[in-house]
Amino acid sequence: MSSHTATPSATFVSTPVVLTIAGSDSGGGAGIQADIKAMSATGSYACSVITAITAQNTLGVSAIFPIPLEHVEKQLDAVFTDLNVVAVKVGMLADSETIKLVAAKLKQYHPEFLVVDPVMVATSGDLLLKTSAIDTLKSELLPLADLITPNLPESAALTNSPLPTDDLSMRAMVEKLRQLNLKAVLLKGGHLEKEDNSTDLLIFDDRIEEFTAKRIQTLNTHGTGCTLSSAIASYLAQGNDLLRAVKLGKNYISHAIAHADELQIGQGYGPVNHFFKGHRDIV
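== hydroxymethylpyrimidine kinase ==
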């Protein structure tokens, strides 16, 4: 007769689930890889739907392979029919058909929160989406979002405006963004490199919340947009309201950039430091 030692009942902690729908970065600094790191570092469980595979490193992108539409759909169904997804972050979408599919699935499954980082413009300034796809993004996906997080080139593309070159022209874009009739826009001013400070504007219909931080001089800024939007989605999933989620996300990305030079990754523009010392203590 054998005896068995009883083990104590396990204590389960409910971890908020956050889904990233984006492209893969083989170099690990941006896209799906950055999203998963940011969500994990900020205390959420990350799952993913890959929309494109890029051949990419710190020196640039050499190839992009869009995932067939049918397989994007199967990934979405697989995640949503099993996992309790609270928040979704959307990044790179390859074309109009992918945008339409993602929008339809989000309407079908109704996640509580949606953050869209409208990845449309490469660092070189080249458009990554055709004009027709940008129109589809504006009509089908952006109206579903609780927050969109465009940088200045993306904001210019969304509003058919000249690229802002200083703080004044950046602020002049606010009303044009409001005309898109979205719930909230985080207009990121990181591209104004001549400014001593980096200022982001959280734009609502009735007010603007301003976030200003001292500009950090580093070449390791690859994946900052992906990281910030993912951190905000993570903090929303944890029960924070939008303003606090943005504040926490901004605090996290500022620390990740400040600690970026502690990493020596690649020969070009390296990644931010997602797992800097003390990342779990961000409040």
